[in-house]
Amino acid sequence: MNRDKNEFAPMPPMGWNSYDYYDTTVKEAQVRANGEYMAAQLKEYGWQYIVVDIQWYAHHAGSRREQFQYIPFGELEMDEYGRLLPDPERFPSSVNGAGFAPLAEYIHSLGLKFGIHIMRGIPRIAAHSRLPIKGTNVTADEIADPSSICGWNPDMYGVRNSPEGQMYYDSLIELYAQWGVDFIKCDDICNTNLYRENQYSASHEVEMLSSAIQKCGREIVLSLSPGPALIEQAWHYETYANMWRITDDFWDKWELLKEMFHRCQLWQRHVSKGCYPDCDMLPIGTLGKGFGCERSTNFTKEEQRTMMTLWCLFGSPLMLGGELTKLDEWTLSLLTNRQVLRMLTPDCRPTQLSLDEKKAIWKAEQIVEEGQIKKSMKYAALFNLDDRTAKVSGSYRDFGMQEGEKLTELWTGEEIMVQGDVLEVLLPAHGCTVYGTI
Question: In the predicted model, is pLDDT for residue 2 greater than 60?
């Protein structure tokens, strides 16, 4: 059956990823607890993915965090074909070859979807041990490319662009599909930044992953990391992936959030059904336990609203990075605002009208069907990028809004009428407002 990858993610994926809180240390019980919270508190608003991030296959991960984020050439769990398996000490339901199937089944029982992080390539230890590639007469050392490595993680070699290399990826995705995986975040592939002369040196591995997913019989969303993605390769990301990171790791620093307005401007015309430039995770709530410094987000409430507004207006996937079971009521309300989340659709076409050091102004238009009637909804978003309270204004004409139309502020519910030529608001430092003709 020919399956269109664009149908795998008709909306930007919304979920939780273990990295920002747990780093490499997440355990099965913690994944289950976050899934239970999402099912109870967030699922009805569109949140549905639970993603286990990096090194779920590594023994003793995080035990030497003061020295290494990733222990050099540490012990990895894998099968006889060089395919990584969950560490049974951290994921006890994976024993006896079960892999992530029992955990995925539990997440599915909650009405959610299950995802995992992988590094591109094949484990180095599989190549050194000359393990066989399933379905072939070759061994791992013959498909591994020792000249293609990750600059920050020691686990893998790249895979050569060969029929046998494709068969390795086919066998890998076949296994993950058997487990019930719905989402794969592949790292060191969107921008292979170790190789400055060719920062998309693993493009063939993107194609091999995509091909393997098409063959596996399961709809699996493919997410590429890290960024920044290369705008000149937009066509390739759009052809073979569902998501691609437009930034390096995004953390709770205002300068990174301010820079995101430039990145979104660059990529604003590349959002479409099943294809999403990715602004990275939302570092809100409680973060950093696995990094040895559990803390609350450094973003102010105003900055968190600005981030959520930009991500939704732009059409970025939404992946929460904080521990869900520690969310407070205010943060929960931030994530469950139906009017703001309503902008998060590829049918909502955004345009950044202006951007400078002190402000950003966006508009968007969305065609919605209510019964037999098609309705045009318009949005106007004003952002104060200054470090102090300031007035920000935009032209109603530029927003496509007409005299007498009623507008609703999506965060507060305040209603105003379009009067005159200019929408002007007084905004706190790093704050925003977004009005819609809802």
Answer: no
State how far the Cα of 219 lies from the Cα of 242, in Å rounded to an integer: 11
| pLDDT for 1 | 39
Distance CA 174, CA 170 (A): 6
What do you get for the CA distance between the two ends of the chain, in Å? 40
Distances (CA, A) of 143 to 152, 164, 167, 196, 379: 22, 7, 10, 24, 51
Give just the sign of the alpha carbon dihedral 130, 133, 138, 143. negative
Q: Show the CA angle centred on residue 392, arms to residues 388 and 396, nearest 5°.
A: 170
Helix (H, G, I), strand (E, B) or coil at 260: helix
**Cα distances (angstroms) measured from residue 405 to each of 115, 376, 399, 419:** 43, 12, 12, 8
How many residues does the structure list for the chain?
Answer: 438
116 and 100 in contact (C-beta within 8 Å)? yes
Look at the block and give the residue holding tokens 């939780």: 16
Residue 94 CA from chain centroid, whole number: 25
Read off φ and ψ for residue 39, nearest 5 degrees: -60, -40
Confidence of residue 270 (pLDDT cuts 50, 70, 90): very high
Per DSSP, 110 falls in state: T
